[in-house]
Amino acid sequence: MSALQIHQFPARTDNYGVLIHDEASNLTASIDAPDDSAVLSALQEKNWTLTHILTTHHHADHTAGNLRLKEITNCTIIGPGGEADKIPGIDSKVAQGSTIEFGSFRIEVLDTPGHTAGHISYVIPKASVAFVGDTLFAMGCGRLFEGTPKLMWSSLCKLRELPEETKIYCGHEYTLANARFAITIEPQNEQLKQRLECVEAMRNQGQPTLPTTLREELATNPFLRAGEQTVKDRLGMQNEADWKVFAEIRSRKDNA
Ligand code: ZN
Ligand code: FE
Description:
With 256 residues, this protein is an alpha/beta fold. The chain has helices at residues 36-46, 60-63, 66-73, 149-160, 175-185, 190-204, 214-220, 229-234, 242-254, and strands spanning 5-11, 15-22, 27-31, 52-54, 76-80, 92-94, 99-102, 105-111, 120-124, 129-131, 136-137, 140-141, 167-169, 212-213.
């Protein structure tokens, strides 16, 4: 059995496009479609033919390429049922518990609302990868445009239950700004300090900092760490519920 091939490339200002390809079945999916030209160039570079678009949420920087890509490749567009009316060209609506057969790989859908009300994530257990759109970022999480802190916290808790070795692909290169914020929440976190330095070096050389892994995020992402006693103590929220600590961290980031 061959491995799932994954190709990540920059698109727009700070988005990432991702193509996944199964050699045996000759299927290729684009995770979101930030920009049709960027996706088409990536396909050409790999010499792959697009068969699917897997949409995480309705924002334009994730769906702008849908219609042109569909017109050119006749691909099938799969996306969140909860916001299907806002996904251009959607053919198939999925939600929590849906599975998509992708050659020999099974893609599982998780509802991860909060950034948008219908946001979903795609997990491929056999390949140990998750595509989380704008729900989780390296050392960050998405802004709460259409959800409450409590809802987003429950989505992050769902992602936190994936195996630690899971590679996490995110919608944006926000890592450096996130790291600089994270250190204000946990100035004593040694692994975070090291990661900040590492990320600064990578960005200075124009390298992508993604994908990340769940293991790294559990150790350094303040939004995933809202339930840690050290974080609660530091914020003077010793006796507060985890989601309230998350809400406080999110509002500090919004106002940073
Ligand atoms: Zn978004
Ligand atoms: Fe986005």
